Amino acid sequence: TARLHYQEALELNPQMAEAHQRLGEVFSELKQLPLAVQEFRAALLRNPKLPEAHFMLGKAYAESGRNKEAVAEFQAALEIDPQMNEAAGALKRLGKMEDRAEGSKP
Questions:
Q1: Which pLDDT value is given to residue 106?
Q2: What residues have CB less than 8 Å from 61, skipping those under 6 apart?
Q3: Which residues contact 59 (CB under 8 A, 6 or more apart)?
Q4: 44/50 Cα distance (integer angstroms)
Q5: pLDDT(95) > 90
Q6: Which of 2, 32, 50, 68 lies deepest, with the highest CB count within 10 Å?
Q7: Rounded Cα gap, residues 3 and 32, in angstroms
Q8: Could you report the per-residue pLDDT of 49-74, keeping only the tens digit for each?
Q9: What one-character DSSP code corresponds to residue 98?
Q10: CB neighbours (10 Å) of residue 7?
């Protein structure tokens, strides 16, 4: 499976940022969000200039209800790659969610 493939790659080279990112994507698809977050953070620790890792970490945070952290990751992705439409769209969606949540507060 893809999970085993990336885990084997990391056994050979634990510093491989892209393998951490891909393993995080596998965990994200499996809805194992804490493990996904761990792998995306490991990828970014090794290479903080991976816009896709920032975006995927932001998605995992958003799915976990950690919107403030999600916004920071989407913004980081856009700083690296201003053309990343997925991150811009996710920021807009989170902004609308935040607006709705604030509107429901007394």
A1: 52
A2: 37, 67, 69, 70, 73
A3: 28, 70, 90
A4: 7
A5: no
A6: 50
A7: 12
A8: 999 999 999 999 999 999 999 999 99
A9: H
A10: 13
CB 81 within 8 A of CB 73: no
Structure tokens at 32: 């194992």
Q: Which pLDDT belongs to residue 100?
A: 54
Residue type at position 77: A
State the Rg of the chain over Cα: 15
**Lookup: tokens for 94:** 């989170």
Residue with tokens 């990343």: 84
Tell me which residue has tokens 């935040």.
98
Give the contacts of 46 (CB within 8 A, at least 6 positions apart).
15, 16, 17, 20
